[in-house]
Amino acid sequence: MIRVEEALERALALASPLPVEKVPLASASGRVMARPAVATRDQPPFDASAMDGYAVIGDPPAGATFAVVGEAAAGHGWQGGLEPGQAVRIFTGAPVPPEATRVVLQEDVTVEAGVIRLASAATGGAHIRPKGQDFRAGDSLSPRRLRPNDLALLAAMNIPEVTVTRRPVVALIATGDELVMPGEVPRPDQIIASNSFALKALVEAEGAEGRLLPIARDTEDELRTVLDLASDADLIVTIGGASVGDHDLVGKVAAEMGLERAFYKIAMRPGKPLMAGRLRDVPMLGLPGNPVSSIVCAHLFLLPMLRAMLGLPAGPAPMRRAELAVALPPNPARAHYMRARLTPREGLPLIEPFGSQDSALLRLLAQADALLVRPVDDPAREPGEAMDYISLNA
Ligand SMILES: Nc1nc2c(c(=O)[nH]1)N[C@H]1C(S)=C(S)[C@@H](COP(=O)(O)OP(=O)(O)OC[C@H]3O[C@@H](n4cnc5c(N)ncnc54)[C@H](O)[C@@H]3O)O[C@H]1N2
Ligand code: MOO
């Protein structure tokens, strides 16, 4: 059994960034930019008024009057010139006439017969947004996972298409004679396939496409057939059949199909029988079948692999700190990822692992906010100690 850190390194070595493609800006939310985007224009492209009011020259005192000689609205600049003693009616977003040095707010003037009079001295802000204040032509946005705010910036930069990394297609293969899909009527000795649904949601939240393949029954032929169906995926994920039982066929069948194994079995709880490798050029992750084990392994291995394929910085699932609520005995030779509840407080949140850590309990997993991380050979812990955890709510 190898350690989690070593296993992750080997898993990440299987995953390389996928080719890039161009997508319209309107479809780019959540996608991962593959190259910097470079602005082709200044924003604003002219000195722009920040307020509705009057553009004037100088710092006039209270009582000063100006003849209104024209109007500048957003999208309609004033071309007629401006002299001292004159004002141009102006609206937010309009180009400020080049001669003007400030905009006075309409609330600060009285208007009579085309003449404005200042109620108070025009001091303080000029209410002009200088050309290029937001960004200039040539400024760039560095590659990142695109959030809605980033899309607004790219649009303002006049970038209609973004170069992004292709979404990894993840084939999800549940295995086992005991499984039927939700909505079907199981025999008395069957259960409902549940893991694939969490895994599909997890990979899609990460920016990949999850493809649910038919459940592979516990025969070598059927498993081979479904693995063949997955050969055009970017990542093959099997669920179950990873352990040592007579019906655990994934390792055997994959090996016969040419799996170059990167590892099998790790010093981790839950998730000991995890395997990974390359099957005919496609990276493969063999998750254990126990529901909690498969989902915990997805957080620790599958999501980092997807981040690597998306060209994002890839490494371990991000860790945070919390204060332990209860005493814990020493942790033996397998790192333990304990399902736990977090209570937010001032300072570090409080973390309390559930009493039962059975890897079949989905109801407890649904109540869990976090995985409390206990490294290999972690000593006994006292309440109040600061510990690492991985968020399940992110
Ligand atoms: N003699 C040993 N037995 C087991 C060991 C071991 O070291 N020696 N390891 C245990 C551990 S730890 C785990 S984890 C499980 C994992 O085994 P498999 O990956 O072979 O998983 P299965 O046997 O196929 O299934 C385990 C369990 O999970 C249920 N399951 C499977 N797939 C799904 C699914 N898609 N949705 C919902 N539930 C699923 C399945 O019905 C079983 O109950 O092995 C231990 N045994
Ligand atoms: O590793 Mo198994 O995942 O403990 O249940």
From TrEMBL:
Q: Which organism is it from?
A: Cereibacter azotoformans
This molecule's function is given as:
Catalyzes the insertion of molybdate into adenylated molybdopterin with the concomitant release of AMP.
Q: Where is the MoaB/Mog domain?
A: 171-308
Classification via CDD domains? MoeA (cd00887)
Cofactor entry: Mg(2+)
Q: Which family does it belong to?
A: Belongs to the MoeA family.
Which keywords accompany this UniProt record?
Magnesium, Metal-binding, Molybdenum, Molybdenum cofactor biosynthesis, Transferase
| Enzyme Commission number, as recorded | 2.10.1.1
Cite the annotated pathway: Cofactor biosynthesis; molybdopterin biosynthesis
Any matching Pfam family:
MoeA_N
Which Gene Ontology terms of cellular component type are present? cytosol
From the Swiss-Prot or TrEMBL record, give the protein name: Molybdopterin molybdenumtransferase
Catalytic activity reads: adenylyl-molybdopterin + molybdate = Mo-molybdopterin + AMP + H(+)
Question: Which Gene3D superfamilies does the annotation name?
Answer: MoaB/Mog-like domain, MoeA, C-terminal, domain IV, Molybdopterin biosynthesis moea protein, domain 2, Molybdopterin biosynthesis moea protein, domain 3
Q: What domain of life does the UniProt record list for this protein's source?
A: Bacteria
Molecular function terms, GO-annotated: metal ion binding; molybdopterin molybdotransferase activity
> Per the UniProt entry, what are the Gene Ontology biological process annotations, in alphabetical order?
Mo-molybdopterin cofactor biosynthetic process
> Could you tell me which SUPFAM superfamilies the record lists for this protein?
MoeA C-terminal domain-like (SSF63867), MoeA N-terminal region -like (SSF63882), Molybdenum cofactor biosynthesis proteins (SSF53218)
